[in-house]
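Slide 14.
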Amino acid sequence: MFRFALFALSALAVAANPLAAQTKSVFSSGLIAPQKIVRTEGGKFVVSESGPGINQGRVSIVSSTGMRSTLLDGLPAGLSGEGEASGPTGVAVDGATLYLAIGEGDAVRSDSEGAGIPNPAGNASPIFSSVLRIDFSTDVDNLMSPFVMRPEDQMVLADGYSVELGNADGATATVEVLADFPSFIPDPNIPYRPSNPWGVTLSPRFPGVLFLNDASLDALVRIDTETGRSQRFLHFPKLANPLPFGPPVSDFVPTSVRAYSRGLLVTRLTGFPFAQGMAAVSFVDVEAREFEPFIGSLTTAVDVAVQERAGERTRFYTLEFSNDFLQNGPGRLMKYDSPNGEAVVSDLVTPTSMALDPDTGDIYVTELATGNLIKVVP
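Slide 15: predicted structure.
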């Protein structure tokens, strides 16, 4: 049994008492459908955004004082069958290099029986279901004005060439498609399942590798950051549905991936009917290609954060999109100093991702519906 199984909480009740000392405030606003957030070495925050419409995906950078500015604009995005924008998702920063996952966009539509089929109108972008590598001429922390991608740039990228962008300050950004995934994989039950890259992370234990979770294929992918060669090294199984309605099994739906110890932490949302207590955090042993329970008894887990504390036990945080997805319940931030978790904030509005300030312990949470970046002081 994996040595961190101390945090396998599937058989434990989770406390729901808010911490009296926590404070919550709006740190920044003006984000447009934010999906993922990471903190840079310089203390800024990079946020991926689906944007307001077709090919209006965006990446923003938020300063340490809460000032938002656009870093990249005009990124691939399309309207899903439900009318919501789908575009930039997972983001990772390594000095002057930014890795950006692009989701399924508008690739999927439903037929008359509700089955997913390729969009008969075609896709808004030729580079959905991909990972972009953007090499800037200076570290991300030093960039002051935006870069804008044009629709014709996306066509050039789809042809296998790189694109060079410039900004008002004379900095440059070289963009290339690092990895391009099949838009659809045959599935006898659907009958087509799209690739939907969602979360990415870099790990110091695995230099030169970008890890990615595919939220539609229920898989983990490793990508060589130089060659772009990718491997789906772990597929997550279906989950039994404990409720008296809905299908007999639900999808695993991995939502984020974080480097931790000698492996990864992966959160899962679970598919319809989104049964309470079925979402979880798993620990993934990359070399063994195995996973084990780590934190359980969650409902709609979308992110996890690790806080290393000198002389004390490591602290973990989990973020849930909703405490009752079918009833539009609020989101929740939990902390774990032991297997018994405590609610830090229980009234978040559609939270999607979080970043931890290792110096202060403050947590920054993106909210999809409000476009706010929330600061939580535990």
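Speaker note: The longest helix spans residues 151-158.
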